[in-house]
Amino acid sequence: MGTALQIEDREERLSRARAALGAAERSAARWGGRIDRTALQPSARPVSEAEGDGLGARLSVPGPLRTLFPRGSLRAGSSVALEGAASTSLLLSLAVAAAGEDSWCAIAGMPDLGLRSAMDAGLDPCRLALAAADGEQRPQVLSALADGVGVLVLGPDLDLAPALWRSLLGRARTADTLVLAAAPPGRADLTLRSTARGWSGLGQGSGRLRRRRLEITAEGRGIAGHRSAEVLLPQVDGMLAAVPAGASAGAAARPAAVSERRPAMQLLPSVRRAG
Q: What is the dihedral of CA 14, 175, 139, 107, to 10 degrees?
């Protein structure tokens, strides 16, 4: 009886996913595009054969953040929570690295995110789904996404109930879907917390803010205590960059020092003229 119910539930989910995909295909056809159905299956990219640990495929992470994660990568089907400054940029950077060149990525809870910003971060618009996960159909939409994509990004504007969060994690583990969430209502396998350490780009009262320095700490499963790293963002392509070796902690926030100083003013003795 239980097996029959599981099969019926799975068929119902697949039916909803096919209906959503059909609507997306009809919408794409109006613009001359098409969707490859075979690409909807999650395709986890092993980092290397030598790094396999028997616990599932490993997914790549941005190079500057590699020291924060066990084995320098993420396990397919795991979850990562992000808290603090620049959470949107960090979510997109992690999604780009994990999705790679063949996995689909779905983003929900970021209504202000445009395709241009996603492309600047490195996401392929041909393998990207922006979901308006609100209203009464929110659980069904998010469940279908967790079953059908390789990377699921849950933004800060998505008000999740704890029960729905636990349900999504269970589905993601079954489907090997990586879940990246901004401040979720429950625990995740790993938690990243970012703290702003200053900006660069301003000179002596002029210029533009160009780059932000962040300190990121990681804790959770597979990490004894916590790990930390410092990064710079954004780069030209929207990705993260490592802090140059030997850079001081406050260099990003201080303007360039004046190389030359004015000589101290000297008073000349008065001279009395004759006559």
A: -110
